[in-house]
Amino acid sequence: MSALLTLSGVHTHIGRYHVLQGVDFEVTQGQTTMLLGRNGAGKTTTLRTIMGLWQASSGAITLGGDRIEQRATPDVARLGVGYVPESMAVFSDLTVKENLLLAARNGPLDDTQLIWIFGFFPALKKFWLSRAGSLSGGQKQMLSIARAIVEPRKLLLIDEPTKGLAPAIVMALIECLKEIKRRGATILLVEQNFHAARELGDTVLVMDNGTIVHRGEMAALAADVPLQERLLGLSLEQHQ
Amino acid sequence: MTDIAATDVLPKPKRDLAPLALPVVLALLMIPLIGSTSSWVTLTVASLAMGMMIFIMASGLTLVFGLMDVLNFGHGAFIAVGAYVGTLVLLPLASWAQADSLSANLAVLVPAAVLSMAVSAALGLVVERVLILPVYGQHLKQILMTTGGLIVAEQVLYALWGPQIIPLPLPTALRGSFILGDIVIAKYRVLAMLVGIVVFAGIVLVLNRTKIGLLIRAGVENREMVEALGYRIRRLFLGVFMTGSALAGLGGVMWALYREQVHASMGDELTVLVFIVVIIGGLGSITGCFVGAILVAMVANYGGFLVPKLALVSNILLMVAILLWRPRGLYAVTSR
Q1: Which CA distances in Å does B156 have to B19, B115, B159, B281, B300?
Q2: Which of A182, B59, B92, B253 is the 20 to 30 A CA-CA neighbour of A136?
Q3: Which of B10, B220, B234, B237 to mutate to test the interface with A (most CBs of A within 10 A)?
Q4: In terms of CA atoms, which chain A residue is nearest residue B225?
Q5: Is the pLDDT of residue A4 over 80?
């Protein structure tokens, strides 16, 4: 299978900090690639650099053949990249409906797509006309993900969707992401929850100090406890 | 697909009506203090008219701050330029303005307002591209650049029109008053109120019923996420900046007609008033700006009538009182 997204020697500086120090990886079309690593390793910076929210100081980022490292964020989004930030960033003053209306940039909301979304996020239908700011944390995360998938996207960048959520909501989110995956989406997913990572990932990248220190099959990492301990400082088994 | 029947609605946050009630309470409290009903009505109408004109001038500034996080201390330049541009139509066509015909008066007033708005909007385009664009995100530089811009604009107006005050008489149809018993209501004040209400309703409608409005509201809250959804918010910034400048121009020409004179330092003087309104209202809040403008005008008018010496500091006292009550203004929109 071909690579949809390629990063080659990407460096990013934030102020005087040299955060990404030559990041190289590929995200294969139709696969879910997990981006793991300790806090501060550069995972969120990687997603934000791809989105153009922080400008890469050097290196190349290619999406489906187009160089995007110098493009502005709206232009990257218009190439078909959906972004779910760590903070969820729902527009709290707007209703659920208005949040999704804004996300549907190419026209009115599509019935079929909405029914599909409501299938695993019924709360969004239930609170369709409520202000997003009044939703619970889990519901906000659902809205944030729904916003990214309300229209077909080439690539989804999702940053720690399960962070701080109750286990039942985490399970619902995992099921949702599995369903999105089954539909053939290409996903680059930052995740600290190893159970979720193992459930969802086809391939895995591990970051440390702004570089990729491991790449391979998710299943292989899941099965290799010493490797997990070496790369991540803990094992998946201990996290069950 | 927008007709989904929500099966439930989360409890809406309690509507905050206290700021809206404030002008009403203030007006009612003034009845016994002023004594005469006719004086009270005259002062109240004067306050509402003055408040509407200040609102028109300030509304653009509050949106510009809320959406773009830009401190535009040069906003007064658009007000003054609007007023001067208005004279380019109103003075050469003075015979129409002074004709005893409403249609002839309107035929000169409407083009004057439209031209003022167009020129102020065009000036807004230049200011945003030349002065603001290089200093986005840098408040101190924004203050220096826009204050400098205001000084330059004022001097250019002096150079073009001279230092003298230009008299600008009201068109005939707008002179005089409606008299209801003992109550005297100036015609121009009624027009100012109507224009202010139309502008307020228009802005509220756009913000709540259109996609552009949704984008502005979303942008005020989280500009980055709006961009991540694929919208070029810089263009929206420019549109809002130009609209705000155009409204300032309209407010300028209305204010000039209200005072029946134009002078280059009017923008300078009004900048302070407009900033007080924006701060009182809550940065970025149109409703707050509307209520704040009425409050400022009420305090100026009632205060000027009851304690003339207090009129000089009344706005500052009002701002202090409001900020002690609500440190982020009447309706806080942004976390800034």
Answers
A1: 40, 19, 5, 32, 31
A2: A182
A3: B10
A4: A89
A5: yes
